[in-house]
Amino acid sequence: MIDTFIEIPISKVESIENIRMNIKERDVSELMQNIKQNGLLQPIGVWKTKAGEYIIAFGNRRLMACEKLGWTKITAKILGALTAEELLIINASENLHRKDVTVAELGRIIFLLHEKGLSLGEITVRLGVTRKKVDVSVELFHNIAPEHRKDVVFMKAGTKLKMGKIPATSYNHLFSVRQECGMSKPEFNKLIGVVKKENLSYSQIKVIGILLMEGATLHDALKALDKYNMRRINLAINKNVEAALIKKHNIEGQGQISALFRMILSGEIRGTPALVYNKSL
Predict the structure, then answer these.
(1) Would the pLDDT of 13 be above 80?
(2) Strand ranges (E), 10-99
(3) Is-contact 8 46, C-beta < 8 A?
(4) How far is CA 64 from CA 25, 60, 71, 104, in A?
């Protein structure tokens, strides 16, 4: 089938949804300069409605740049009849190739597709991403405060974090800490600001979380950060002794269980020699 390309009036192009919530002015300005010098090298993609209007499927930045240049018409590839779900998938697939797509942007599209009846498994296959990425995106889309959405990103192994950005796993942990500690919004925003400014690692964020859950103030936790390293210790724990401790200290949730073991390690809780496996016991 031969693709159909035609000139269409920009005024007749509408947008339903776009994965990119934060199209940067700088990006549009650079694209405007490129189009001004070289012309529109890649057409936008649209779906023509029965009413003679056009719904854009991909090329939102190009459309915006051409409109700002004063163009009244733009070259477009006319797509076949598409459902709203297919439009979202085409739009998301194109934008996922861009390295600066945020978690909230991806989560928003996944949420919309899920509401339209697609299962998370189907969305995983159609977008060509991992199930873990889909689950994290949806969760964080609901949890990320609007003022933080542009800064939370997925990190690929071996890549360096950009200054001012927060990895999705780190934000997820920070959000859990906020809930666990009952942290106020101003305090949480202050913590997010420090994480971005200092480019804190996940281990450092874990240390801050532990200190906060142990009762330290945010000020004291940040001040003491350089004194501690994050370590994971794998131990074989006696189930019966652990269950008795949980019942005795009225422990609920994984966070409190971790706090219990830290108290044992620090000596605050004594008299549990049978807790950890030892061949002499």
Answers:
(1) yes
(2) 13-14, 44-48, 54-58, 73-78
(3) yes
(4) 10, 6, 10, 22
